[in-house]
Design a protein that fits this description.
By secondary structure, the chain is an alpha+beta fold. Helices cover 32% and strands 13% of the residues. The chain has one domain (7-103). β2 and β3 form a beta hairpin. The two termini are 19 Å apart.
Amino acid sequence: MSETAEPGGKRGRGEIALRIMATTDLHMHILPFDYVNGTPSLTTGLARTAGLIRTARAEATNALLFDNGDFLHGSPLGDEILRTFAREQHGPRGRHPIVAAMARL
């Protein structure tokens, strides 16, 4: 990932380099764990991705992180948290866990 705005590293007047990052289809997989099979996972989890995001942010002065969707539901953990939030209106401790995790990135 290059931080340069143009090939060769040349920037025009008033231009800045901007790194745009995105996550997608997290489906409430915060930890590297397969909630369906009840086993650790080497390929999923926002906790695993967080290190990559931190590294990418450290490489670029200006960086934005977006999520493309499907981060709140789609796993047994996500479904259970959704039920808990529905029962308690604002959820336990007020903030959805994946929203809190994403805010820390």
